[in-house]
Amino acid sequence: MTEHGTSAGVPRWVKVSGLIAAVLALLVVAVMLINGGEHGPGRHMSSGLSTPLVDVDERGRQLG
Questions:
Q1: What is the rounded distance in angstroms from the CA atom of residue 8 to the CA atom of residue 56?
Q2: Please, which pLDDT band fits residue 17 given cuts at 50, 70 and 90?
Q3: Rounded to whole angstroms, how far apart are CA atoms 62 and 49?
Q4: Cβ distance 31 to 24 under 8 Å?
Q5: Do 63 and 55 contact (CB within 8 A), yes or no?
């Protein structure tokens, strides 16, 4: 005879934890897609830089 209340399967808390992790992962992907991929170091730079990133002369030519 089998005992009642015992199970050889995966515990319920593991299933629930996996489901929550999967939902959170899908939520993160959805937010990244909706955001338009605006992430990375370029996001932290202003669009109107006051100083150039390279040295240029008065004609706009790159120096040395």
A1: 72
A2: very high
A3: 17
A4: no
A5: yes
Question: pTM of the full predicted structure?
Answer: 0.47
Q: DSSP labels for the chain?
A: -PPTT--SS--HHHHHHHHHHHHHHHHHHHHHHHHTS--SGGGGS-SS-SS-SS-B-TTSPBP-
Close Cβ partners of 57 (under 8 Å, ≥ 6 residues apart): 63
According to the model, what pLDDT value does residue 57 have? Answer: 80
Which residue did the predictor score with more confidence, 63 or 33? 33
Contact residues for 64 (Cβ-Cβ < 8 A; gap 6+): 55
